[in-house]
Automatic annotation (TrEMBL):
It is an enzyme of class 2 (transferase). Gene3D superfamilies: Vaccinia Virus protein VP39 (3.40.50.150). InterPro entries: Methyltransf_16, SAM-dependent_MTases_sf. The gene is coq3_1. Its EC number is 2.1.1.222. Signal peptide: none annotated. One of its GO terms (molecular function) is 2-polyprenyl-6-hydroxyphenol methylase activity. It holds the Pfam family Methyltransf_16. GO terms for biological process: methylation. This is Ubiquinone biosynthesis O-methyltransferase, mitochondrial. Keywords: Methyltransferase, Transferase, Ubiquinone.
Length: 214
């Protein structure tokens, strides 16, 4: 059995911290056979990345009552839980079944199973994600760590047709072609730097050209 740790994450929303349980060591989960099987799979889901904390705090400060939210590459699910606490109905997705199980466990621990559904889904295959929609907002934290993600994520966003996307990224080089590609197909983008984690930027993409100031 994998050892786990539980850490409280203060969303700075005046509410109790969310408790996030994750494997104590993501290195212990590395599976060379899974890596070699074709997708170069690594258990990145098992870390709570700084972008997830920044995105969750951003979402926690919003009023999402009545909105339908999708998170892609959710890992442990923190932004999805924050969105649910802010009033949204959320579908949290990742291609890793282990990630989805961890996110579901975190949702249960937070008493949010009624508003967060955790589903295995690959962002390279928009069909099931479109079928789960429509969504008002798409969330993603630190999903642009490989160049191979750029084109499928742009295709997914175009196919989902949600009016708003909020993406947190730790200034990875791959974010630049993504943002350029999004601008080229008509997204209006507002980017802000996280106050306490200067490498992390929050990019808000809107379809209608009405980018909301931070
Ligand atoms: C760097 S981790 C970020 C996890 C989480 N969002 C966070 O910030 O803590 C990237 C996540 O994307 C997921 N991922 C990678 N490729 C994916 C794909 N093709 N479809 C869905 N999820 C994917 C990984 O399993 C992992 O959970």
């Amino acid at each position: 059995m994998t050892a786990v740790v539980t850490e409280p994450v203060d969303l700075r929303d005046g509410r109790a911290p969310l408790l996030i349980t994750r494997p104590a060591s993501s290195d212990a989960l590395i599976d060379e056979a899974a890596f070699a099987a074709g997708d170069e799979y690594l258990p990145y889901w098992a870390e709570l990345w700084p972008s997830a904390v920044v995105l969750a705090r951003r979402v926690a400060a919003a009023d999402l009552r009545g909105l339908r939210v999708l998170e892609v590459g959710c890992g442990l699910g923190l932004p999805a839980l924050a969105a649910a606490r802010a009033g949204a109905t959320v579908v949290a997705t990742d291609w890793s079944a282990d990630a989805v199980a961890a996110a579901a466990g975190n949702a249960a621990a937070a008493g949010l199973t009624g508003s967060v559904t955790c589903v295995v889904a690959d962002w390279r295959d928009p069909g099931p994600l479109v079928a789960a929609g429509p969504f008002d907002v798409v969330l993603a934290a630190d999903v642009l760590y490989e160049a191979r993600a750029v084109a499928p994520l742009l295709t997914l966003l175009a196919t989902l047709n949600a009016p708003q996307v909020i993406l947190a990224d730790p200034s990875r080089a791959t974010a630049e072609p993504f943002l350029a590609g999004a601008t080229a197909v008509g997204w209006s983008i507002t980017s802000t730097q996280a106050e306490d984690r200067p490498m992390v930027r929050v990019h808000e993409l809107r379809r209608d050209g009405t980018a909301v100031p931070p």
